[in-house]
Amino acid sequence: MTQPTSTTAHAILERCDELATYSSMEDGLIERVYLSPQHAAVNALAGRWMTEAGMTTWQDAAGNQCGRLEGATPGLPALLLGSHLDTVPSAGRYDGILGVLSAIAVVDRIRSSGRTLPFALEVVAFGDEEGTRFGRALLGSRALAGTWLDEWWQLEDEDGVSLRDAYVHFGLDPDAVSEAARSRGDFVGYLETHIEQGPYLEDENKALGVVSSIAGARRFLLTITGQAGHSGTPYERRRDALAGAAEAITTIERIARSAQLIATVGHLEVFPDAVNVIPGKVEFSLDLRGEYDTERDKVWLQIEEAILEICQRRRLRLTSIQTHSAKAAVCARRLRDAIADGIRSTGDTRPMSLFSRAGHDAMAIAEIADIGMIFVRCKGGVSHNPDEHVTEADVAKALDAFEATVLRLADGYEG
After folding, report:
1. Residue 1 banded pLDDT, cuts 50, 70, 90
2. Cis check: omega of the bond before 272, within 30 degrees of 0
3. Alpha helical stretches, state H, 224-380
4. Are 388 and 2 in contact, with CB atoms under 8 Å apart?
5. In the listed set 297, 326, 355, which residue is the last one of a domain according to the structure?
6. How far apart are the C-alpha atoms of 326 and 195, rounded to whole Å?
7. Which end of the chain offers a freer environment for a tag, N or C, measured as fewer CB atoms within 10 Å?
């Protein structure tokens, strides 16, 4: 059966292109951050598309754009579908966005078919998954999950604007953020379609995959302090913080690779940062991810011990501050099975199971609902980059699989 134009893969990709024009960067580059004018603009656009798909719509107290299609009777628990519309700097146009648009399209397909479901369908376009502006990821989904922390109001962006002030400027009431929170009884589950941020589907020549779990992540700001000095200082008298940090960073990689975990040092700042001065202090980040929290935490202790040994040997001092922690989230078996059946309906008789090394809004929603995720092949595994690319054929399969997953859950729903 020919689907309405707004629910085809071609239409989804056109909408991705349209959303890409809402950016704070020039020269065709994409950046869209939380509580910005661009955020407001894409919420309005997504809200319009939700309305066209037959949903009632609202922007919640945390700036997430939401829509709802009632089930057989009004007020039933909902199957929540969605992803995010914010981006990193110099982003691609599919990370998060594809999931939101796919969710809207699937709701439109089901409404257009005339089928009544034993649960409602809700779509959410989260306002902040990446954490680009305020340095805290998953703000939108944490608000919806009811795990918002008041200490976050003191966060500031690079211009010194606090999160609280940004809320007010956006037209939101900081004191009402708890109104965005939903409870476990509101949902029968959460499904998210997302590009794979890795090369494994492409390596296996598969369009889609079933996500088994999402990595638990801990982030740290590490500071190694020595003593600044003239570049003519003999080696035996140096307390070179940068040399110590360099050894620490390669040690982090060695330990993580040995444990088959992912560790990334993505930020490094040197003080006083002069060509003829031995660095007296170095700050650097550590992002540590693992499929299981216990293994990840064990590796962090190994890393910390190794860096302390480096600092002792080099007469340096280490301080560490944890800036982020997220538990690993295991996808529910019933949702994984439904997704696998949905993928089989597209012709792939042996769906591939994948562990997500990247974080997603599903991690926050796991606090109040079972979660499931569909991965879509992304060329070269490239993400968070303008070269992000998906094919129309793969998106078409993703839409079909997503719809089939929802219908399978409806067929097996027992209330």
Report:
1. very low
2. yes
3. 241-259, 293-314, 333-344, 361-365
4. no
5. 326
6. 21
7. N
